[in-house]
Amino acid sequence: MNESEMEQFHSTIGLSCGGMVRLGKKAPFAVVERDCCRLLRTAYEEGIRFFDLAYPLEEVASIKEGLSGIDRSELCLSTNFSFWEENQPKPIDRIQKEMEEALVSLDLEYFDISYVRGIAPEQYDPVVKHVYPLMEKWKREGLVKKVGISENFSRDHDHHMMGEALSDSLWDVLVVGYNILNQSASSLLKEAKKKGLMCISMSAIKQAFVNNEVFGIYMDHMIKEKKFHFTQSEFYEFKDELFRGADGVSFPGLAYRFVRDEDLFDVILTGTGNNEHLMDNIESLKAPALSNRVHSLLKEFFKGEILATGQEGFMDL
After folding, report:
1. Among candidates 179, 149, 167, which has minimal Cα distance to 261?
2. pTM for the whole thing?
3. Which of 9, 60, 120, 167 could form a disulfide with 152 if both were Cys (CB 3.0 to 4.6 A apart)?
4. pLDDT tens-digit readout, 82-129
5. Beta bridge partners of 79
6. Rounded distance, CA 254 to CA 185, Å?
7. Rounded CA separation 144/43 (Å)
8. Cβ atoms of residues 148 and 108 within 8 Å
């Protein structure tokens, strides 16, 4: 990669340090502390500068050691927190305490970004009323540089909440669900870019994209549940055409490159629990653009689909 390509890569990929696997500390990886540290260091050495840290920070020791010795100005550190727990809003003073604890535990003076995560449409007004003023206070005090919000993609497939957030013009950062299966946020993301907002992809890859076999099982299940407008035979025809010289990659590789090539996001988050998987994801995002044929096939075949994200119903398969 030349210098300009590397600069673009820095601004494209981010490592999620929370989520379902938490740097490999959760199943199916269940790695030890030193492997988590090595994962972070590998990410940095491969050019990743964006790290997304979810509260509660169960990986504090790993994050501190893995990123130790790196100039803070080189990194973009994001943190996210929940407002709802067991269908109840979290007390504001507790959120304040969590932010203070996160900064102290990581020996940081500030986070570049803090966003409230997983907000459903009916939760948006309480967030604006109670949480947003606190986050603006953090900005004034220099604890964070940008504030943002992420949607509950598994419940809000067509982005009602995010539409409100975009209209309100309160937020600096939008964390949006978008992938091959559900491209419905395209217009919203284009408008956000016009407004100069930072957009982060949180769902380029979901559980159904693990490999071609799993993706096929997932698609068969979702088609039988009538979550798509096409039939099983139409999907098989599409798949045969897609992989007719389709850049020699699997669905995970196609999924990352598709979202990258759409040029709608500033950062595409990737989550993993081991170095091999991390390198696979990085290679996908470093790879050349998909051919026009492949990109158009993916764009057109799933156009208008809004009932699938690659996650829902997955545990029941």
Report:
1. 179
2. 0.90
3. 120
4. 998 878 899 999 999 999 999 998 999 999 999 999 999 999 999 999
5. 53, 114
6. 19
7. 23
8. no
